[in-house]
């Protein structure tokens, strides 16, 4: 019996240290994990900027926006995409507004003249950039009714934001003495947008082909009608 107790005692002595070492090793492993290392182990998540970049790429490639597919490609949930962009119509609106602003900036930067010549050149360049925009024409041809809703409805804000871009350009034109408009700038910018829509999207609105020259002529008439001209004061 005594011999058995000695063996049991030795066995207990050998096992005891191993039980005390395990928590120490776990503590050591835990100590090696820093806040940065934890973040580095987690895949980076997409951002709203990634969604916009994806939307721009799909637009240029002629892909219809699909919130589910976009969420899957970005590695986020549909709810996240909706939280970032709202409805699909609003996402199209963001892309279209951005592209219009870019076209207006390009049209204004390519000519260094002044006065009426400057206004005429910018107008023609802008309208041609819009008409020659292949993704935009494809978007209208794919589903003209939906395209018009995106381009012209209040909910998508494309029309509102395009008018705001034009108004900023008009303000600079007045400041630089290129323009002396006969109308207030808010009214003028909105009329220019509507005139452009009517002539450039006629295929979707009335079934007639777009009339680029009429869009240019009508816009120039609006822009070159000057304040103080007696013709606009007649009753």
Helix content: over 70%
Radius of gyration of CA atoms, rounded to a whole number = 32 Å
Supply the helix-strand structural class.
Answer: mainly alpha
Query: What value does the average pLDDT take?
Result: 84
Order of helices and strands, N to C? HHHHHHHHHHHHH
What's the total count of β strands? 0
Shape: elongated
The share of residues in extended strands comes to under 5%
For the largest beta-sheet, the strand count, sense and barrel status come to:
none
Distance between the termini: 128 Å
Low-confidence stretches: 12-20
Total count of helical runs of at least 4 residues: 13
Task: Characterise this structure.
With 235 residues, the chain is mainly α. It contains 13 helices and no strands. It has helices at residues 2-31, 35-41, 48-61, 67-74, 78-85, 88-109, 115-131, 134-142, 144-152, 158-175, 185-200, 202-205, 212-224. Helix 6 (88-109) runs antiparallel to helix 7, helix 8 crosses helix 9 and helix 10 (158-175) packs across helix 11. The radius of gyration is 32 Å and the shape is elongated. The termini are far apart. Mean pLDDT is 84; it is low at 12-20.
Quick structural summary:
With 235 residues, this protein is an all-alpha fold. It is 74% helix and 0% strand. The protein has helices spanning 2-31, 35-41, 48-61, 67-74, 78-85, 88-109, 115-131, 134-142, 144-152, 158-175, 185-200, 202-205, 212-224.
């Amino acid at each position: 019996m005594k011999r058995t107790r000695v063996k049991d005692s030795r066995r207990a002595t050998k096992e005891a240290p191993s039980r005390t070492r395990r928590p120490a090793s776990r503590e050591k492993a835990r100590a090696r994990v820093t806040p940065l290392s934890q973040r580095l182990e987690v895949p980076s998540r997409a951002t709203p900027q990634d969604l916009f970049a994806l939307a721009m790429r799909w637009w240029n490639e002629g892909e219809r926006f699909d919130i589910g597919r976009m969420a899957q490609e970005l590695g986020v949930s549909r709810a996240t995409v909706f939280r970032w962009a709202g409805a699909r119509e609003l996402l199209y609106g963001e892309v279209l507004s951005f592209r219009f602003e870019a076209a207006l900036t390009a049209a204004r930067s390519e000519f260094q003249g002044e006065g009426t010549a400057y206004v005429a050149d910018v107008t023609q360049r802008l309208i041609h950039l819009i008409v020659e925009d292949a993704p935009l024409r494809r978007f209208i041809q794919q589903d003209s009714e939906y395209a018009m809703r995106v381009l012209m409805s209040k909910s998508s804000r494309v029309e509102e934001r395009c008018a705001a871009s034009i108004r900023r350009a008009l303000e600079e034109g007045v400041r630089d003495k290129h323009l002396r408009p006969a109308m207030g700038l808010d009214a003028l910018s909105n009329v220019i947008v509507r005139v452009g829509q009517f002539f450039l999207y006629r295929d979707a609105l009335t079934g007639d082909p777009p009339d680029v020259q009429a869009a240019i002529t009508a816009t120039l008439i609006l822009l070159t009608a000057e304040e103080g001209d007696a013709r606009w004061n007649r009753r």
